[in-house]
Amino acid sequence: MAIGSKLWAMTIIGAVMIGSAATYCIGVARFQDGEELSYCTWGDALLSREAIVEAIDKYNKAIELNPRFAIAYLNRGYAYQLSGKLSSAMTDFNRAIELNPRLAEAYLNRGSIFQEHGELEAAIKDYDRAIRIDHNYTEAYFNRGGARFLQHNYRGAIADFDQVITRLPKYRSDTFTLQISTSLLPPSYTIRGLAWEYLGNLDRALADFSAAIRLDPGFASAFNNRGIIYEIKGDSAAALQNYDEALRLDPLMAKAYFNRAMLQYSRGLLTTALADFDQVIHLKPNAAAHNKRALVFRDLGDLQAAKADLDKAVMLDAAVSNVYLNRGQIWFLMGNHKNALSDYDRAIKLQPTTADAYIARSAVLRDLGNFREAVVDLNHALEIDPRSESALYQRAEVKYLQKDLGGAIKDFKRCETLGGKIQALARKRIIEIQKEHRVFK
């Protein structure tokens, strides 16, 4: 019977430990007797009260009395793991496996250390071994599902969480184990929901997040995740309701403030979005929040505040091309073409396949009268996105400034075929050019 299990649960942006496996020494009484068993059982009792140092001392004594006591190594390793001494924990798990290669908990725990170090393949191999030993070992399926999720093996992750969800009610009978194991159900539904989301199956994702919430109505992350699905599906009211509930349950959840801020910004509620971005930055300063808040300040007309946020975003993460793209726009709006070009250059260097960066740089070049280079940038943008309305329309305007009236009309006519608002604008410009210059190409 497991004292605890080293398990993994995913939120939107990562993985966190929620639990590791140790086996009660009393459970092996038929194989061990004497003083070493007493010390090991004493250690279990101390460990269950989180008296980790004292528990380790008792396991030490058990091992001194019987250096081949595999369970004592397993449980001492678990105690080391809880205290952050992962190297010592790994040594003990290796020794436990050496003494008893059928000790599934040792493979689970060793796998969790590999996973914590980012060694996902090694972790999965250990979870595989644990499952071969005990094919009903839901904790091992859970951890393997988490590792597969981190590898972007979403279908593999779904298969593992299917096992957790279907096996738990059937194979867990004693009260203590049931309490531990059923705690895996809400995160299992949640991670499986994320996997379905990344595979594009929003209905299944929504169903899984809703199942997690039914099992645990206080699961704030599930509300946040469900809010994202509703937002993608175009139900802004339901999305907002879920973000609100996530924040009611966890007022310190920065990602829920961020998601709600983005939703409010998309609805044009700038001051409301600003307040939520303020909360994100207060709770968890990051480049993305400063970058997005800058857009709110820009739309409110406060260019200095927008630039200050973008400067901070660059300090926090100098490798995000979108930050330079946005700051370049602020410089451009401020009339500082030199700094705008510098930031657009940086954005393109970091992400050369972003059409918007070429379009933005072309606007600066056009203002500076460098029409030839502006057209080169717009050509690049159209190579990346042949249906870019903005690139096509702007190229038509630059060609007009170059006195290439035929080329301008040709591009405007291409704009007409794209439909939407650009169609009317393009038709208007064609008529203006033809009327002014008597050109009917």
Question: What this model shows, in words?
Answer:
- The chain is mostly helical.
- The protein has a domain at about 215-285: Serine Threonine Protein Phosphatase 5, Tetratricopeptide repeat (Alpha Horseshoe).
- The chain is about 75% helix and about 0% strand.
- It is built from 24 helices and two strands.
- It is elongated and about 105 Å long.
- Mean pLDDT is about 90; it is low at about 1-20, about 25-30 and about 170-180.
Q: Which helices and strands, and how do they pair?
A:
Blueprint (H helix, E strand, L loop, with lengths): L7 E4 L2 E4 L17 H14 L3 H14 L4 H13 L3 H14 L4 H13 L3 H14 L4 H13 L3 H18 L3 H8 L2 H14 L3 H14 L4 H13 L3 H14 L4 H13 L3 H14 L3 H13 L3 H14 L4 H13 L3 H14 L4 H13 L3 H14 L4 H13 L3 H12 L3 H18 L4
Antiparallel strand pairs: 1-2
Please give the CATH architecture of the domain at 217-284.
Alpha Horseshoe
Structural class: mainly alpha
Please count the helical segments: 24
Largest sheet: 2 strands, antiparallel
Q: Unreliable runs, pLDDT <50, ≥5 residues?
A: 1-19, 26-31, 171-178
Gross morphology is elongated
What is the CATH C level class of the domain at 217-284, in words? Mainly Alpha
Element-by-element helix/strand order: EEHHHHHHHHHHHHHHHHHHHHHHHH
How large is the radius of gyration? 30 Å
* Rounded mean pLDDT score: 90
Question: What is the number of E strands?
Answer: 2
Measured as a percent range, the helix fraction is: over 70%
Strand order, sheet with most strands: 1-2
**Percent of residues in β-strands:** under 5%
CATH homologous superfamily name of the domain at 217-284?
Answer: Tetratricopeptide repeat domain
The CATH topology of the domain at 217-284 corresponds to Serine Threonine Protein Phosphatase 5, Tetratricopeptide repeat
Distance between the terminal alpha carbons, to the nearest Å? Answer: 83 Å
